[in-house]
Protein backbone atom coordinates (compact mmCIF):
# COMPACT_ATOMS: atom_id res chain seq x y z
CA UNK A 1 0.00 0.00 0.00
CA UNK A 2 1.32 3.47 -0.95
CA UNK A 3 2.52 5.64 1.91
CA UNK A 4 0.77 8.93 2.63
CA UNK A 5 2.73 12.19 2.73
CA UNK A 6 1.59 15.26 4.61
CA UNK A 7 1.12 18.12 2.11
CA UNK A 8 -0.93 20.60 4.18
CA UNK A 9 -1.39 20.67 7.94
CA UNK A 10 -4.73 21.47 9.61
CA UNK A 11 -3.92 25.16 10.01
CA UNK A 12 -3.07 25.55 6.31
CA UNK A 13 -6.24 23.73 5.26
CA UNK A 14 -8.44 25.87 7.49
CA UNK A 15 -6.73 28.97 6.11
CA UNK A 16 -7.38 27.78 2.53
CA UNK A 17 -11.07 27.02 3.12
CA UNK A 18 -11.62 30.31 4.94
CA UNK A 19 -10.27 32.09 1.84
CA UNK A 20 -12.48 29.96 -0.40
CA UNK A 21 -15.61 30.80 1.63
CA UNK A 22 -14.80 34.50 1.73
CA UNK A 23 -14.01 34.48 -2.00
CA UNK A 24 -17.49 33.14 -2.75
CA UNK A 25 -19.19 35.67 -0.44
CA UNK A 26 -17.12 38.64 -1.61
CA UNK A 27 -17.45 37.54 -5.23
CA UNK A 28 -21.23 37.16 -5.16
CA UNK A 29 -21.74 40.45 -3.28
CA UNK A 30 -19.41 42.19 -5.76
CA UNK A 31 -20.99 40.64 -8.85
CA UNK A 32 -24.33 42.03 -7.68
CA UNK A 33 -23.00 45.47 -8.64
CA UNK A 34 -20.84 44.40 -11.58
CA UNK A 35 -23.78 44.12 -13.99
CA UNK A 36 -27.57 44.50 -13.54
CA UNK A 37 -28.01 40.87 -14.64
CA UNK A 38 -26.23 39.79 -11.44
CA UNK A 39 -28.13 42.07 -9.07
CA UNK A 40 -30.20 39.14 -7.81
CA UNK A 41 -27.11 37.97 -5.89
CA UNK A 42 -27.66 40.91 -3.54
CA UNK A 43 -30.74 39.16 -2.09
CA UNK A 44 -28.41 36.52 -0.62
CA UNK A 45 -27.08 39.28 1.65
CA UNK A 46 -30.37 40.93 2.57
CA UNK A 47 -30.68 43.30 -0.40
CA UNK A 48 -28.58 45.83 -2.27
CA UNK A 49 -27.83 48.05 0.73
CA UNK A 50 -26.50 45.19 2.86
CA UNK A 51 -24.54 43.72 -0.05
CA UNK A 52 -22.88 47.11 -0.59
CA UNK A 53 -22.04 47.40 3.13
CA UNK A 54 -20.76 43.83 3.54
CA UNK A 55 -18.77 43.50 0.29
CA UNK A 56 -15.72 45.59 1.31
CA UNK A 57 -15.51 43.94 4.74
CA UNK A 58 -15.71 40.47 3.18
CA UNK A 59 -13.02 41.45 0.67
CA UNK A 60 -10.77 42.88 3.38
CA UNK A 61 -11.14 39.74 5.49
CA UNK A 62 -10.36 37.58 2.44
CA UNK A 63 -7.18 39.57 1.82
CA UNK A 64 -6.07 39.18 5.44
CA UNK A 65 -6.67 35.42 5.29
CA UNK A 66 -4.79 35.22 1.98
CA UNK A 67 -1.84 37.00 3.60
CA UNK A 68 -1.70 34.18 6.15
CA UNK A 69 -1.37 31.62 3.35
CA UNK A 70 0.88 33.84 1.25
CA UNK A 71 3.57 34.09 3.93
CA UNK A 72 3.49 30.32 4.40
CA UNK A 73 3.77 29.46 0.70
CA UNK A 74 5.50 32.23 -1.25
CA UNK A 75 8.99 30.69 -1.06
CA UNK A 76 7.73 27.47 -2.68
CA UNK A 77 6.17 29.55 -5.48
CA UNK A 78 9.26 31.42 -6.67
CA UNK A 79 9.73 30.69 -10.39
CA UNK A 80 13.02 29.06 -11.46
CA UNK A 81 14.73 27.69 -14.60
CA UNK A 82 12.87 24.37 -14.39
CA UNK A 83 9.59 26.26 -14.56
CA UNK A 84 10.62 27.75 -17.92
CA UNK A 85 11.06 24.21 -19.29
CA UNK A 86 7.72 23.22 -17.72
CA UNK A 87 5.97 26.10 -19.51
CA UNK A 88 7.56 25.12 -22.85
CA UNK A 89 6.04 21.62 -22.59
CA UNK A 90 2.75 22.62 -20.95
CA UNK A 91 0.84 22.10 -24.21
CA UNK A 92 2.04 18.50 -24.49
CA UNK A 93 1.05 17.87 -20.88
CA UNK A 94 -2.45 19.22 -21.55
CA UNK A 95 -2.68 16.74 -24.45
CA UNK A 96 -1.86 13.92 -22.00
CA UNK A 97 1.89 13.50 -22.58
CA UNK A 98 3.85 14.18 -19.36
CA UNK A 99 7.03 12.42 -20.53
CA UNK A 100 8.95 15.68 -21.21
CA UNK A 101 7.85 17.53 -18.09
CA UNK A 102 10.73 18.36 -15.74
CA UNK A 103 10.41 17.18 -12.13
CA UNK A 104 8.53 19.75 -10.08
CA UNK A 105 9.00 20.84 -6.50
CA UNK A 106 6.04 21.38 -4.19
CA UNK A 107 4.39 23.42 -6.96
CA UNK A 108 4.78 23.33 -10.73
CA UNK A 109 5.02 26.42 -12.94
CA UNK A 110 1.29 26.50 -13.64
CA UNK A 111 0.45 26.48 -9.95
CA UNK A 112 3.05 29.18 -9.28
CA UNK A 113 1.64 31.44 -12.00
CA UNK A 114 -1.87 31.04 -10.58
CA UNK A 115 -0.53 31.82 -7.09
CA UNK A 116 1.09 35.09 -8.22
CA UNK A 117 -1.94 36.06 -10.32
CA UNK A 118 -4.10 35.62 -7.22
CA UNK A 119 -1.68 37.59 -5.04
CA UNK A 120 -1.34 40.43 -7.56
CA UNK A 121 -5.05 40.71 -8.33
CA UNK A 122 -5.96 40.66 -4.64
CA UNK A 123 -3.48 43.45 -3.94
CA UNK A 124 -4.97 45.57 -6.76
CA UNK A 125 -8.49 44.83 -5.50
CA UNK A 126 -7.51 45.86 -1.97
CA UNK A 127 -5.82 49.15 -2.95
CA UNK A 128 -8.46 50.20 -5.47
CA UNK A 129 -11.28 49.12 -3.17
CA UNK A 130 -10.12 51.54 -0.49
CA UNK A 131 -10.08 54.36 -3.06
CA UNK A 132 -13.85 54.23 -3.62
CA UNK A 133 -14.99 52.76 -0.27
CA UNK A 134 -17.81 55.19 0.51
CA UNK A 135 -18.13 57.06 2.80
CA UNK A 136 -14.86 56.26 4.61
CA UNK A 137 -12.12 56.91 2.06
CA UNK A 138 -13.65 58.54 -1.00
CA UNK A 139 -12.87 62.02 0.34
CA UNK A 140 -9.14 61.33 0.02
CA UNK A 141 -9.20 60.74 -3.74
CA UNK A 142 -10.37 62.88 -6.70
CA UNK A 143 -13.27 61.55 -8.73
CA UNK A 144 -11.01 60.75 -11.72
CA UNK A 145 -8.87 58.45 -9.59
CA UNK A 146 -11.96 56.84 -8.10
CA UNK A 147 -13.30 56.06 -11.58
CA UNK A 148 -9.93 54.59 -12.59
CA UNK A 149 -9.93 52.58 -9.37
CA UNK A 150 -13.37 51.14 -10.17
CA UNK A 151 -12.11 50.04 -13.60
CA UNK A 152 -8.93 48.45 -12.22
CA UNK A 153 -10.93 46.85 -9.38
CA UNK A 154 -13.22 45.19 -11.93
CA UNK A 155 -10.36 43.99 -14.16
CA UNK A 156 -8.47 42.56 -11.17
CA UNK A 157 -11.65 40.84 -9.96
CA UNK A 158 -12.06 39.16 -13.37
CA UNK A 159 -8.40 38.01 -13.26
CA UNK A 160 -8.95 36.64 -9.75
CA UNK A 161 -12.13 34.78 -10.73
CA UNK A 162 -10.44 33.25 -13.81
CA UNK A 163 -7.43 32.25 -11.69
CA UNK A 164 -9.69 30.53 -9.17
CA UNK A 165 -11.52 28.69 -11.98
CA UNK A 166 -8.17 27.40 -13.31
CA UNK A 167 -7.12 26.50 -9.75
CA UNK A 168 -10.29 24.48 -9.12
CA UNK A 169 -10.24 22.85 -12.56
CA UNK A 170 -6.61 21.76 -12.15
CA UNK A 171 -7.32 20.37 -8.67
CA UNK A 172 -10.13 18.22 -10.08
CA UNK A 173 -8.26 17.33 -13.29
CA UNK A 174 -5.21 15.91 -11.49
CA UNK A 175 -6.72 12.95 -9.65
CA UNK A 176 -5.72 12.78 -6.00
CA UNK A 177 -5.12 16.52 -5.60
CA UNK A 178 -8.34 17.43 -3.78
CA UNK A 179 -7.55 15.14 -0.85
CA UNK A 180 -4.50 17.30 -0.10
CA UNK A 181 -6.84 20.11 0.94
CA UNK A 182 -9.48 17.89 2.54
CA UNK A 183 -7.42 15.27 4.41
CA UNK A 184 -4.05 17.02 4.24
CA UNK A 185 -2.24 14.06 2.71
CA UNK A 186 -1.42 12.71 -0.74
CA UNK A 187 -0.30 9.26 -1.79
CA UNK A 188 3.37 8.67 -2.42
CA UNK A 189 2.53 7.67 -6.00
CA UNK A 190 0.77 11.01 -6.61
CA UNK A 191 3.72 12.91 -5.19
CA UNK A 192 6.27 10.94 -7.24
CA UNK A 193 4.31 11.43 -10.47
CA UNK A 194 3.36 15.11 -10.11
CA UNK A 195 5.96 16.66 -7.79
CA UNK A 196 9.02 14.45 -7.95
CA UNK A 197 11.44 16.92 -6.33
CA UNK A 198 9.06 17.51 -3.43
CA UNK A 199 8.60 13.72 -3.09
CA UNK A 200 12.38 13.29 -2.96
CA UNK A 201 12.64 16.01 -0.31
CA UNK A 202 9.88 14.47 1.82
CA UNK A 203 11.14 10.88 1.63
CA UNK A 204 14.88 11.44 1.31
CA UNK A 205 14.77 9.44 -1.94
CA UNK A 206 13.70 6.26 -0.18
What does this structure look like?
Strands 1-2 form a two-stranded antiparallel ribbon. The chain has 206 residues and is mainly α. It contains nine helices and two strands. α5 packs antiparallel against α6 and α8 crosses α9.
| Number of β-strand runs | 2
Shape: elongated
Largest beta sheet: strand ordering: 1-2
The helix content, as a percent range, equals 55-70%
Give the strand content: under 5%
Number of discrete helical segments = 9
User: Mind describing the biggest β-sheet?
Assistant: 2 strands, antiparallel
Mean pLDDT: 94
User: Low-confidence spans: pLDDT under 50, at least 5 residues?
Assistant: none
Spatial extent as radius of gyration? 20 Å
- H/E element order: EHHHHHHHEHH
**Structural class label:** mainly alpha
First-last Cα distance: 15 Å
